[in-house]
Amino acid sequence: MSPHQEAELDVRPLRKPDKHPTIFATYRALPVGGSFVLVNDHDPKHLREEFETDHPGGFHWDYLTREPRNWRIQITKLATTALPRILTDTRLPAGDPDATGAVWKLQVHERDLDSNIIALPPGGTIEAHSGPPLDVLIHVLAGTGHLTTELGVLDLEPGALLWLPRRSHRRFTAGPDGLRYLTVHQRRQALPIEPRPA
Q1: DSSP structural state of residue 41
Q2: Exposed, middle or buried by CB within 10 Å (0-12, 13-18, 19+), for 188?
Q3: What is the per-residue pLDDT for 3?
Q4: 198 Cβ partners below 8 Å, 6+ apart?
């Protein structure tokens, strides 16, 4: 289909918070091979980064015009959904090998899951707390440590796969080489740590 026959989405009149949701809704509604022309008042570099994060290899981005206040980009849908892909190599330290806390996290915007790689230094702890109101799956990647539960202690070694039931009590303690593990759970805006009752 030639560019002049395609649907246009002019986001210039929209409020800034409405632009990206409108663009992605338009993209999701396309059939495979379908496209639309985005009309914007600037080069939407951040939008393209979001497409690259959420749909790498699954879309085509073609600048048609690059004029002041009249940027026209043809966006074509190449696959029905986001494509499966490799996110990281968990055998390698994510980021700075001396970093602690969340050293990697799932960055995809449109998702149902959250995932992080957590690193604790030698002897480091995540103090006793009640977990969030959702189940968490944990895969130990490197190092050793202990998980203290309400009634006992579990040894943590590479390869261990743990299930933390919702709201269960837990305390993590890293061994002499530190501890690094992957978490996977249902997406939630925030996971507050609730202090364990005395």
Answers
A1: S
A2: exposed
A3: 43
A4: none
Structural element, H or E, at residue 16: helix 16-29
Best CA proximity match to 19, nearest among 55, 1, 46: 46
Cα-Cα-Cα-Cα dihedral of 167, 183, 84, 7, to 10°?
A: 60
d(CA 185, CA 94): 19
Contact, 38 vs 14, CB < 8 A? no
- Give CA separation, 81 vs 31, 58, 74, 184, in Å: 10, 8, 19, 21
The secondary structure of residue 72, as a DSSP letter, is: E
- List of the chain residues with pLDDT < 50: 1-4, 191
Spatial CA neighbour of 163 closest among 194, 131, 118: 131
Place of tokens 């409108």: 22
